[in-house]
Structure formats: structure tokens, C-alpha cells
Amino acid sequence: MARVHQSGFELNSLTANMEWSVIGAAGTTITSGAARSGTYGLRISSMTSATQAGVLYKWLAVASTGPYFLRTYLNVQTLPSASNHIISIGSSSGTVGGSPQCKITLESNGTLILRNQSGTQIGSASSALTTNTWYMVELKTDTTAGSGSRIIEGRLNGSVFATTSSGTQTNSLSFSVGGNLDAEAQTTGEWWFDDIALDDSTGSFQTSYPGSGKIIHLKPNATGDANGFATQVGGTAGSTNNFTRVNEVTPDGLTSYNQSGTLNAEDLFNCENSGIGSGDTVNVVMVGMRMRNDTADATMAVKCEIEKTSGGTIAQGSAIISNQTTFQTNQNNTPHNYTLVTYQDPDSSNWTQTTLDSMQIGYKVTTANVNSMEVSTVWATVDYTPAAVTTSNELTLLGVG
Length: 401
What we know:
mainly beta, single chain
């Protein structure tokens, strides 16, 4: 699997299972003002005492050993008045921050502390964070060894600040970012999150810490090689306009979608230019979509698709059997993991600015029945590392700016 999940909050939604599995209560907002890259980021502010704020993503149905490597970017605007649980990998799927097996807290002096499942500090605190500055924070858990020999590790801007190889934590299936994740009595503080990624150690790419990266979404902006979904709802009529019904932010469900029940019906769309630099490194490209079956039948299947240029080789994700009459993201049920994850283009060459800007994305009916598959939104999520130092209010470190 390698890259398990990534999110830059670019769907601009706090609806459960749109982009995140569980949403915390008061104090959780998505806003362009909290973006490090792309358009949106997560803002934690105006917290309610003893109430979790933030988001949780569940990537597994059953907790597993890992190792798992979580990356998030953190920008502290206002410090909390006391220690606050802000990042965790856990075994709970129903409560933001619940049942953490390892976690990071933000202290009132601006340092980060790595803690185990019981809240006990591991190693030393990090150096103090400067407010209004983006930092890359990473968290690792590995329970492949026996209890008492398990690994928990925290990194700041790529350097380990605390670690243990004598952990007793259990297996994990979710991660959370936010504030008051231990239901602390805290109302003070504001911090932002963006460019989140989770890796495991399988496969040939992204098998350890995600490292530096920025996440953007590329949306359809023109007709492509195929316009096979013949029934449309919303927008202008005609198959050449199919892209207009699947490119919105936030996904609008029944308001506009493309529909077909025909075997091998396919839509492919050109996308907006990436805007990245010619020397930037593209780490991961994933294709996601919101879809439903107009009548649940446990048979109709659709696959996400990507090609690097018109007429080129097409890569497909695994089949999605959408036995749901409500729109779902990527999968029929939780976990809603992406089904099409690429580290290279369909011809096994590295993605570049040029091929990102010429690529097409879409979907295809691969198993038909008497009903129809309806697709409301499709997008490509791209994780990339800038080639050179930038000058901004971020740290001027390679790949962090």
C-alpha cells in the first residue's frame, strides 16, 4: 500500500466520510486562511472545554501492527495555556483522538512532547515552535515486535526529537489531528493543520516517513478522450460538457452528476494545470471520486482512471461496487481509502509538471446491471516536494517552504 492516505482539506467539507471519517465538535473549521498549500487548511480555535475538536481518518477496518508513519504540517497562531493533545495514531474509529496508542501534545511554552498510550512522556521535548510558522511534524508507531519492544517516534522538520523502542502500545487503525483530543479543559489557543499524509512500509514507494510535501487537488476543466456517460443531471446538456458536473468544490451530490448503466461507459477529462515548478518532485498522485448506485444492487462496479496524456496508457484503480444509494467517497463503506494510487505515470516514468498538466482523469463502468452508476465529483490529489528554498513566513528549509 505504501501511501495509505493523504489530505490537504481540499474538498472543503466537514461532512463525515466526505474526506474525513469523524469530525470533532466546536472549534473545527476548514478555511483558506489556514492553507499552507492548495486552497484550504484546518483551523482549530475557539475550543469548548472538555470537548474534542478536529478530524479523524480511519484507514483500516481492523487494527494492525504497522509500522505507520504520519505527517502533518502545523502552524501555531496562539499557544494553549496548558498541555494539549493535538496529534495521535489510535485504535478508536468513533471519537476524534480516542484510544490513542501514541500522541503528541503542544505545551504552553511552544514545545512538543511525544507521549505513549498512557500519556507518559517519551524522551525530551522538542525545541520551542515559533508562532505563525509552518513546521513538519511526524509520528511513527510500530507494534510488529512484542509488547515492551515496540517503537514510538516523533520528528520535527525531519529530525527525531523523541523515541522509544520499549513501547507497550497496541495496534492502530486511525489517526487524528486537532485540539483537546484528550477532552482537556482548554479554550485558549489557535493552530492550523495542512498537507497530511500517512504511509506504511509495504510496496516500493513511500515506505517510511512521508517527508516534506505539499498537497493540491487538480479538477476537470475540459472534455477529454471519452464522454461515455450519456445521462447528465445539472449544468448544460451534452456529453462534451460532462466535466462541468464533476469538478465542483465541495462535492454537491444530487445537484450535478453524470450517470450511466452501460458496460464500458467511460468519461475522461483534462484537468487544470498544476502550477508546480518544472523541477519539483511529484511524490504521489491519487484519483478520488464521489459516486452512488441509483438502486443498490451489489453488482454495478466502476473504476477510477488516469492517463498522462491524450491517447496514452490508462491506469485503473480497483473496482468499486457501490451498493449505496447515497453518495460515497472512493469506497462503498468505511474505510474510504483511494482505489487508484500512483507513484509513477501509467508508463512507469516519474510524474513531472509536464505530465501532470497533460494528464486526464475519469472513471469507467466495469460491471453493468439494470441500474446506473452516478458520479458527482472526480479529482486528482497530488503530493509534491518543491525543488528549491522559498522565502515566506515558513521555515526556509528545503521542501518545508
